Amino acid sequence: MSELVxxxxxxxxxxxxxxxxxxxAEAILKEARRRASEIVExxxxxxxxxxxxxxxxxxxxxxxEIARRRSAAEVEASQMILRLKREIIDNLIRSIQERLQRIAxxxxxxxxxxxxxxxxxxEGIKVLGDREVYLAGREKDKGIxxxxxxxxxxxxxxxxxxxxxxxxxxxxxxxDSRDERxxxxxxxxxxxxxxEGRMPQLVERIFGGI
Length: 210
Prior knowledge:
Layout: H1 2-104, H2 113-128, E1 132-136, H3 142-153, E2 158-161, E3 171-176, E4 182-186, H4 187-207
Parallel strand pairs: 1-2
Antiparallel strand pairs: 1-3, 3-4
Helix pairs in contact: 1-4, 2-3
C-alpha cells in the first residue's frame, strides 16, 4: 500500500514539475512572440520611415529639378524674346536708314532733299549765331550746297563749302568761321536723337505687352 502511495506522490511531483516547465515554456514563448512582434513592428516602422524619407527626398528633388528646368526655360524664352525684339528693332532702323538714303539720293518723290538741306543749313546757322560758316556734306551734295550758299549770301550769310566730303547718308554739318563750333544736322544724327528720345514709346507701340 505504501508503495502505491509513494508511486502516486512521485507521479504528482512529476506532473507538477512538468506543469511548471510547461507554464514557464509558454511564458518564455509568449514573451518571445511579444518581443518578436515588437521587433517586426519596429522593423516595419523603420522601413516605412526610410521609404517615406526616401520618397519625400525624391519628391523634393523632383520638385527642385522641375523648378530648375522651368526657371531655365523661362530664362531661355526671355532671352529669345529679347533677341527677337532686338532683331526687329535693328531691321526697323535699317529700313529707316534705307529710306533716308533714297531721300538723299532723290529717289523718293515724297520728299524734296534740296529743301531739306536748305532748312538744315538755316537751322544750324541760327544755332551757331555766326554770319560766316562752312557747310560740309556728302561729295555728291556739293552742287546743292553751293546753290544754297549763294541763296544764303543774299541774306547776309557768307557760307563756304568744305571741300572734304563726309561719309554720311545725308544732311549737313555747319561749322563756324574758326571751326571751333559745329552743328551736326545729318540724317544719322537726327535719327539717333529721335531713337534715343522715343525708343521706349517705339518699343511699346511695336510690341505692346509682349
